[in-house]
From TrEMBL, chains A, B:
GO terms for cellular component: cytoplasm; tRNA-intron endonuclease complex. The lineage of its organism: Eukaryota, Viridiplantae, Streptophyta, Embryophyta, Tracheophyta. InterPro entries: tRNA_endonuc-like_dom_sf, tRNA_intron_Endo_cat-like_sf, tRNA_intron_Endonuc_cat-like, tRNA_splic. It comes from Vanilla planifolia. This is tRNA-intron lyase. GO terms for molecular function: nucleic acid binding; tRNA-intron lyase activity. Residues 124-212 form the tRNA intron endonuclease catalytic domain. PANTHER family: TRNA-SPLICING ENDONUCLEASE SUBUNIT SEN2. GO terms for biological process: tRNA-type intron splice site recognition and cleavage.
Length: 258, 258
């Protein structure tokens, strides 16, 4: 019988994979979307993030979708969430479920919000594209600053599963001959791979190519090209001929091939 | 039941994995080694490669070990093999199974051969380190020029299995501030990943760090540091939640986890 190596998600408990399968993230986000649309939810923009007041029901949906960060407060039926700039743009522009207002309470339309985000946050275009791209594939995307990367991605809710990918978003240059400033040297890449590996994540590099694309309207991000590379360490010993045999070390990482 | 993605070797036929398991490459190479030692085999150095005359028995062992390239000739019991510079050095210095002679028939000792190879072939140090490193882990290593890389690596004999890795050998610089000249740009990396992927190989980048190491003696290569990175494309769709369900597209790539 042939043995092959398996890599996959690290679920946090027994049966959690089934719970995830029975509750697809796409449906949870759909519920959030329709609930927010019905209630005409507003968020106040401060800097490049926004603040949202949520009912208990909405708070539950936001938490289950893993969108926003709940800010502790004492009131029982009022909940506050801070949305990152990507989440703010995603809820307003991609899901059309949020109205972002400025500090005076004036609503910002998609274009105004787009311009504010572009102005206030460096690399917003690339980061937002990466966020939308991953959310569109039903990945849960959270900030990665804890690991020195842009995002971490989860197969489902972080309560069920560990994050699988540490994501670095790189730009292919904006036509001015500008180069990615990070991961320029292979030693940087090795460093980042080791760091990700030490927390059991794979390094995923996103290359966002927005050369020659007019960035006036937020819809332009659909035309940005995304190229994704996974970079991992290779352990030649894991592949040696000894692993064809039935020793325990090898089998612990293998399953029979069908 | 949880489904996980499997990657592994592509055997060329049914039962070939078993044939490989029953005939470990390490034992085949050991047989070659002792046979060559007994017969005091010589090879003639021409440029940076060498030529070896082999009996039918030795030719069989060389072919089974996948060392050297047999040169067609008409005589039935005389066989000629061309050994690459890495193979020549490996057989003489690492396996101590070969005596390399110059065109006048004078034997070259390990140090003389080392100096000739270093002089005649750019990047010999890195390429040889990569070759020895892989052979030491029982990988079959063949030239990769066909795929625009330095080597390809097979789990066993190429008659049994397709090569799994396309290998690019990069130097960490020799202390003179010299940089790797290949894969300097991420676009080069993407290109190489795509090319490797199109021939069902994974791109494996070897970083050979020989900074601060005296390269006078061939034994120095033991102190070169090797860092290996696997770089592959990521297909987010393969990881989507639909794959938790029992649809055929997903299952074709999955096996049940134990």
């Amino acid at each position: 019988m042939m043995m092959q190596r398996v890599t996959g998600p690290r679920w946090k408990g027994k049966g959690f994979a089934d719970i995830a399968a029975e509750n697809p993230m796409s449906q949870i986000v759909k519920k959030l979307e329709s609930s927010m649309k019905q209630s005409r939810i507003k968020a106040i923009l401060t800097g490049s993030v926004s603040l949202l007041e949520a009912s208990t029901e909405l708070a539950d949906l936001l938490n289950r979708s893993c969108i926003g960060r709940q800010i502790p407060n004492a009131e029982e039926d009022k909940h506050w969430f801070q949305l990152s700039s990507e989440e703010t743009m995603y809820l307003q522009h991609a899901l059309q479920s949020l109205v972002v207002v400025d500090e005076k309470g004036r609503p910002l339309n998609d274009l105004e919000l787009w311009n504010v985000m572009k102005d206030r946050r460096e690399a917003f275009l690339e980061l937002y594209k990466a966020y939308v791209h991953l959310r569109g594939k039903n990945w849960v995307v959270r900030p990665g600053s804890q690991y020195g990367v842009d995002f971490v991605a989860y197969r489902h809710h972080p309560a069920l599963v560990h994050s699988e990918y540490a994501i670095v978003v790189l730009s292919e240059g904006d036509g001015n001959g500008e180069k990615c400033s990070r991961l320029r040297e292979w030693s940087d890449v090795q460093c980042c791979v080791r760091l990700s590996g030490s927390v059991a994540k794979k390094l995923l590099a996103f290359f966002i190519d927005r050369k020659g694309i007019d960035e006036t309207l937020p819809s332009c991000i659909q035309r940005f090209n995304v190229e994704e590379l996974i970079i991992t360490r290779w352990v030649p010993e894991q592949n040696r001929e000894e692993c064809h045999k039935n020793d325990d070390v090898c089998n612990s990482e293998k399953v029979p091939a069908t």
